[in-house]
Amino acid sequence: MENTSQSSKLRWYNIALLAFTVVWGFTNVVNNFANQGLTVVFSWILIMFLYFIPYTLMVGQLGSAFQNSGAGVSSWINELLGSKWAYLAAWTYWVVHVPYLAQKPQIIMISLSWLFRGNGTFVNDTKPIVVQLLSLVLFLGFVWLATKGLNALKKLGNIAGILLLIMSFLFIILGISAPFILHTHVATPNMGSLHDYVPKFSFQYLTTLSMLIFAVGGCEKISPYVNKTHNASREFPKGMLVLAIIVALSAILGSIGMGIVINAHHIPNDLMSNGAYEAFQILGRYYHVGDLFMWIFAITNTLGSATALAVSIDAPLRMLLDEADERFIPKVLLKKNKHGVFINGYKMVTVLVSILIILPALGIKGMSNLYNWLLNLNSICMPMRYLWVFLAYIMLVKYMDKYKSDYVFVKSKPVGYAFGIWTFVFTAFACIMGMVPKANMAAFATSSWWFQIAMNVITPIILIALGLILPAIARRTNKIND
Questions:
Q1: Could you list the residue ranges that cross the membrane (predicted)?
Q2: Residue 2 lies inside a defined structural domain of this protein
Q3: For residue 421, is pLDDT > 90?
Q4: Measured between alpha carbons, how far apart are the two ends of the chain, in Å?
Q5: Phi, psi torsion values for 229, nearest 5 degrees
Q6: What is the pTM of this model?
Q7: For the chain, what is the radius of gyration of the CA atoms?
């Protein structure tokens, strides 16, 4: 019996692959290449060593110290700082998904445009308000679907996730080998020049950091698997280190592959929205298979995005409400329908996402600009949840003698504090800098630029402020005394 249970435990390679599917995707390569061109190769190396590796190893220690905490980050914060802070952590984790949900319908429509029309012109040629109204209809359809159960869709999503990973590696292998095997033209001239890979650490460069952090975040999602890992003190951190290596190789080689098929000196404005499809379309022509690679990517991205949309409507909300403390959450949000769905919670999601789908279309001109803006807003909001991971680690270092763990990232308290404070401050700095629209969005004088920066500042503030208001509503409606 003991051997059976040991054989069912996860090994380091299971942890690495599981975390990789959670953290990484080919679009991370495309989006950051669109921001930085070939200089992103150097940026990936810096971000891996200075940020991602410490991040993953901190998660390893937190997961090891709180092996029986099923709710992840909010459980860690509850243990270390108390229930009020745990509520704010859970709220942040949920609310940062609002911009994410607002963009997924766009991604699905772009995928379908490439699948059925062989190009991304539908989104580019259609007025932003029309696209966003269609996005709203699509989102409302998925809200309805999420209320009916997600089992079949989850299975399709798992298959799509595996296929997307395969496509990512396929792009790297075929893209980098094409000039050597097929003697194809390299789109970016002088790719052998080291000068093209070293970024200028200007203000403009600093505004792109949030997208890099957005790309490598999220490994705390696999922390519940620490206590399911064989010899966790050794194999879990080993798996996380392997994860960092795989992500680094995927990012660096994928960016070089992008430079081979797309000219890094003349990056089109719609590369974030259409670049992945264009890259696979070019590869298909190189290898004489037509649009096959693009079709496969479009199908898998449609399924993957559809699943992510439906699951992300439900799962983060459940994390917020399943074990809700009635001192902080109004009882009205805890009402469930016959399918066990938090129906009023769904209504709250629907209102917030609907506003974020429609409102920007009134002030941002051009669908590519709107897509790029919403993606950038995601890169500002999503990393806000990582701040709680680093705060939890700082507090764990403070109480290291009380909370023992099989795996310890660093044994020295001053060094531990330094890593925790560095990652916290760097994340906050990147989010703030990310609020500035990128240079390719236009000059300071345009109304669209000012509208974007206003939305970038106001949206995170409002989303977090709502979390501060709910406890006051809960005290009044739940009739709880202070």
A1: 12-30, 42-64, 129-147, 159-182, 202-219, 240-262, 292-311, 345-364, 370-394, 415-437, 449-474
A2: no
A3: yes
A4: 51
A5: -100, 135
A6: 0.89
A7: 22
